[in-house]
Amino acid sequence: MAYAHKVRSISFCDKNALNLKHLQRALDIFSPEFIAEYHADTMDFLKKEHIVPENYAFAAVAEDLLSKIKSIATCDFTKLGGTSRFDTILSVEAIECVDALSEFRNAMRSVYAVLNPGGLFLMAITPYDKMTDKVREYIDSGVEGKLNPGIVAAESELKSAGFTLETMETLPTGIDNYSTTIIVKAKK
Questions:
Q1: Measuring CA to CA, which residue among 14, 24, 56 is closest to residue 39?
Q2: 174 dihedral zone (left: phi>0; alpha: psi -120 to 50; beta)
Q3: Cβ-proximal residues to 52 (8 Å cutoff; 6+ apart), any chain
Q4: The pLDDT value given to residue 11
Q5: Angle 151-161/101-114 helices, nearest 10 degrees?
Q6: For 95-122, what is each residue's pLDDT tens digit?
Q7: Residue 2 — pLDDT band, cuts 50, 70, 90?
Q8: Is residue 138 helix, strand or coil?
Q9: CA separation (Å) from 11 to 8, 102, 131?
């Protein structure tokens, strides 16, 4: 959402094909009303940080995002590489869905490696508050990871990968058992 108005194209990738199915379903219902209901706090943060214009309306966000999607594909964040380089990488409730700290560390390093110098990494992590049957179901299906990194682990691994943290803050979500989202803006 943050850079939809500034980019030429958007590509989505995830290690888990099931997550991509969930993404496709979300995109199918993505609308100004959906953004207002589920992402108003994120939009407020992006406006406060001057990442998006103050007058960036939910309708414009939806149109910008949906019109620029070029691909939805499986990939492994822990093994990004090749010759592709990006000015900005956005990870929303995805990159932290790993089972071990080493995988999270590799993901941070992989993202850093494919960013252009001065590139931005924007990330939202929504850790679960406690292990529940529903969380176990998510883990078993591959939608959620066992690691569940919090703000301390995220900060440590981002810095270890070489990122400079510009913003890192916790916002309330109002979602049962996922009460906070960690919002990160880091620069290469």
A1: 56
A2: left
A3: 1, 2, 3, 5, 43, 46, 61
A4: 76
A5: 40
A6: 777 888 898 998 899 899 989 999 999 9
A7: low
A8: helix
A9: 10, 25, 32
Give the tens place of pLDDT for each residue, 78-100: 676 666 788 888 888 777 778 88
Hey, how many other C-beta atoms are within 10 angstroms of the C-beta on 33? 12
For residue 121, how far is the Cα from the chain centroid?
9
User: How far, in Å, CA of 118 to CA of 163, rounded?
Assistant: 10
Instruction: List CB contacts of 47: < 8 A, sequence separation 6 or more.
Output: 53, 54, 56
> How far apart, in Å, are the Cα atoms of 73 and each of 54, 149, 164?
32, 24, 29
Token match 């496709």: residue?
Answer: 24
